[in-house]
Input
Amino acid sequence: MLIPVVLSGGSGTRLWPVSREAFPKPFMRLGGEMSLLQRVLHRALPMAGDHAAIVTNQEYFFKTREEIDRLPLKHSAKVTQLLEPIGRNTAPAIAIAAFWAHEQDPEATLLVLPADHLIPDEGAFQQAVREAARIAAEGRIVLFGIAPNAPETGFGYIEAGDVLSGEARRVQRFIEKPDLARAMQFVQAGNFFWNSGMFCFTARTILAALAAHAPEVHTSAMAAWEASRAGATAEKVPIALAPFTACPNISIDYAVMERADDVAVLPSRFAWSDIGSWNAVSDQLPADQDGNTTVGDTMLVDARNTHVQSEDRLVAAVGVDNLLVVDTPDALLVASKDSSQQVKEIVARLRTRGHEAAKLHRTVNRPWGTYTVLQEGPRFKIKRIEVKPKQTLSLQMHHHRSEHWIVVSGTAAVTCDEKTFLVAANESTYIPIGTRHRLENPGVMDLVMIEVQCGDYLGEDDIVRFQDVYGRTDAK
Output
């Protein structure tokens, strides 16, 4: 049984302002209908048996479920989310996935794939996976190596040695991100490959390798799995916090790949990108005669080698060269293409300042729908709220703000203390400070409403939940 395991973590700080902590890179759409997460599922699930898994943070459960349910093609494999309470790097994530997969089938072969890679040729990818699974059945750990087409300094490299089986070759050594001179040497040598971060191995093989080379990871992950089994369902496995926190924060490369024997690299011929910067995004788009790439409503005059991206308004650029311009409703990035890797420094500074733009977009996804902050100022905030059909917000209360709700379309079922009543389009209701209240969409079309908040504190953490269908209750 082949079980795809998708690692969907990390906030993609180099792709800010589109990628944020609450809306990371796997959910991005690069000019197409499918997100990066949907794309990896679309190319991996046709090869799966009955099971597949996504390892992700528990905060992304509902958004990930939405991405799965919106796949254009349905597959027979049941996709289970392994929900991390905190991030502990790839070795603990893969260890948990291996224990879970072994429970499904002791002879399972795992295909481990990051959620944020782009591989346009799905046929070539699937052919490589079949070859990797064959080699993994021999008890080897298989890495997918990408033949370098340029002296890239942003990737780790694998030096390949003797031929083992088919096209697979023994891994001689791993090299961290090299400087330009060494990268040029690697390209010229012909036996060096980019380390793609994609792997194939049996559950037995990787668990034995973890026990031998990273016993602390193996022991802690096994304890976390045992503590989590009682709450496991076919849809999700909430991973127990305490034992998972005890897992060392270490990558699978350091924990196993650089220490284990029988590690093979399979040279892969398909086109591949890890979408690690805005330059990489630009490289995936068709360029005009001056080397410019655009997404959204844009206009360029006398511009060269420039990427301009807009979400909801016209962005014009005149007389510019070698720039990245990425516009979102609440943040604008302007950078030299030569400095695309430094975008992460902006995010680091925003986090230091406690700025919301490091975490949230103006439009925020919730299990029940979305909200968009339209305007805010001293003692007031105005939101557009959209609730999906048959969905319900928590029964909650605020200590510091009152709310006025105006229904724009659809019908709202409103609970206010002991009363429950309907509010139709072009009608409104008022929620005083300290009142227990709930909003529900009982209809079959989206409920859209405007919320006006007034008070001395309007932060999102001024919510006391008493009941919640999504398991977010924090008060009794």
Summary: The CA atoms of residues 153 and 301 lie 32 Å apart. The chain has three domains: 2-268, 278-343, 363-467. The first strand starts at residue 2 and ends at 8.
